[in-house]
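Re: that chain you flagged

S.,

Sorry for the slow reply, it's been a week of failed gels. I finally had a moment to sit down with the sequence you sent. For the record, here it is as I used it:
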Amino acid sequence: MAQSFTLPSRYRNLAWSLVGLGALSTVVGFVVSPTSVWVSLHICSQYFLSAALFGAFILAVATVSGSAWLTPYKSVAEAMSSFLVPSGVLLLLVFLGGGHTLYEWSHSAPGAHHGALAAKQAYLNVPFFVVRLIGFILLWAVLSRKVVRSSRGGQAPSVKWSIIFLIVFAFTYSFASFDWLMSIEPHWYSTVYALYTFSGFFVAGFAVLTIAVVKLDEFGYLPGLINENHYHDLGKFLFGFSTFWAYLWFSQYMLIWYANIPEETGYYLLRTHNDWDWLFYFNLLINWVIPFFVLLPRSMKRSRDVLLRVGILLLIGRWLDLYLLVAPNVYHGAGITTPTISWIEVGVAVGTGGLFVLVCAAALAKHRLVAKDDPFFEEGVHLTQ
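Prediction finished late last night. Pasting the structure tokens below so you have them in one place:
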């Protein structure tokens, strides 16, 4: 049984090529359309920070619940968490360099705001925002490191650190979503916004985990450890959390639509006019409609090829969902009335994705790939449905 992981050369070369493409797209993009670059970098920092956090999160959940299903491939989740610091640094750099482009409330000096912005000034100000951002990243980095170290310890993982991580994560990720995403439109708010971002976090996290497990199985690193029952579990998670995301998508939209309060409806008016409308509904199509009907049959959830394709589709869908959370208001402020998904957005996204693959692959190569010393290993391998 192969125990040491090495990323195949063609995938490694492809990842480095994507990193180069991303760097080129960023540099040239700053000349052509700086606003598009800042939007893209902000989306990617959120996207891959969530993927890294999910690695530690699912390890903590499995530990607290005493679950065995993750054990055969929990090294994937451990490796995902290795990108937390790089993505956190990227997020900080994006705010320091492009904060005035992304956040309306950062434009004026303290005391210059009026109305709703003046009421929020004590919370939405640059120094306090930076302190919170750095604080969230440091907390997550320290606690996720504790969780991952405990997971790699060769014995039953520490429940204490997993509980602490989950409690801290629930509060801090909620406030982070308010800071980094909702405050882009500071005159608007939603009471289910944190839940909505959590739902996307779950979908994208399980999509990354599923794709990685499928590829490791294809590479021959998990012989005899993964069967249709494991894929069935991953398929159910994709199916369930995609539906959970759709439920919150509809709930937020319906509550705002029938209340018809001007302070709330502006958010959706911006996203359903000037050619944004087709992306708005296409978002629902690829994040829920297609995955729902494809994964509805039991046989589809147990198919490695189907799960790989649905996982890729959901990763694209998660990027689009974040794009619709960030871009419309930023572009509106910059005088751009229509969506612009061009080579800049694609290049930055695939470049950051290539870096994520390289960092996670390096983490996988440094540590044991199969946790045979875990007390739940045998139960996890012989999973039945």
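What I noticed first: The chain is about 75% helix and 0% strand.

Talk soon,
D.
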